Amino acid sequence: MAKIIVKQVKSKINCPQTQKRTLESLGLRKLGQVVEHDATPAILGMVNKVKHLVSVEETN
């Protein structure tokens, strides 16, 4: 399965609570933190919800 690398690039300070919870469920708690996930539909949906706060990179 393909992997994606997700990095938080913008602050979550002025975001709705649902977006803050989505970032935490992705494992992103600090600005600049990087996590790696499998590219499942659930993970891609979460990334899509906070796409303005994160950068995404595909790996093999």
The helicity comes to: 25-40%
Major β-sheet profile? 3 strands, antiparallel
Order of helices and strands: EHEHE
- How many runs of DSSP E, i.e. beta strands? 3
Question: What kind of assembly state do the chains in view correspond to?
Answer: single chain
* Count of helix runs: 2
Gap from first CA to last CA: 8 Å
Report the structural category. Answer: alpha+beta
Strand order of the largest sheet: 2-1-3
Describe this protein's structure:
Keywords: Ribonucleoprotein, Ribosomal protein. This is Large ribosomal subunit protein uL30. The N and C termini lie close together (8 Å). Helix 1 (17-26) packs across helix 2. A three-stranded antiparallel beta sheet has the order 2-1-3, with no helix packed on it. The longest helix is centred in the middle third of the chain and has 10 residues, at 17-26. It is built from two helices and three strands; from the N terminus they run E-H-E-H-E. It has helices spanning 17-26, 41-49, and strands at residues 3-8, 34-38, 54-59. 32% of the residues lie in helices and 28% in strands. The chain is globular, with a radius of gyration of 11 Å. The chain is α+β, with helices and mostly antiparallel strands.
